[in-house]
């Protein structure tokens, strides 16, 4: 279902579906063999998606300094307002990577307001995410993929609500991630949790979703009015 939002709806790790190429008839038995050039849409779609990711990363990297911090604060205000209205018993947040909105100040406010938080943990490269209970300020270490995780992880069941960082998002609420498929697998497994995509407004972009993609319930940017 399309997400509801106070602005263009649409995080977190999404992409254009690969088209099916037309078949090429086999040559007759006695016909001489010859090379036939045929466009393969799958590599073309993969290359287009890679180019789109590079563009979105560059767009996000251009946000820096006070302007970025102001955007982060505006996003955080909306997430805090949403949490106060919905009160999920456990909220999965994220540790920011590569210019993603940094919501650490919001996480501290959430805990102060009584929220319980968890962080995603990669257990296998092609599996759904696991989650570990987390309190801001506790000791962190880097996992093999370079992502910060609690040094003494306390595994919890998948939270009923997730903040999902987005590299890009479209008007239908689909997220473009980094291509690992972790969030897609996580959202496809079991009862669907509430999902809030987190992104900057400049990351809104048109793309087609794959059949396995799962739309997010809501996208929060510095330009939305989520309460």
What is the CATH topology?
Rossmann fold
Tally of individual domains: 1
C-alpha termini separation = 20 Å
Give the proportion of residues in helices.
25-40%
Q: Please, what is the oligomeric state?
A: single chain
Question: Largest sheet, order of strands side by side?
Answer: 6-3-2-1-7-10-11
The CATH architecture designation is: 3-Layer(aba) Sandwich
Largest sheet: 7 strands, mixed
Strand residue percentage:
15-25%
Could you characterize what this model shows?
The protein has 227 residues and is of the alpha/beta class. It has one domain: NagB/RpiA/CoA transferase-like (Rossmann fold), CATH 3.40.50. It is built from four helices and eleven strands. The chain has a seven-stranded mixed sheet, with helices on one face. The protein has a two-stranded antiparallel ribbon with strand order 4-5. A two-stranded antiparallel ribbon has the order 8-9. Strand 2 and strand 3 form a beta hairpin. Helix 2 packs parallel to helix 3. It starts with 40 loop residues before the first helix and ends in a 7-residue tail after the last strand.
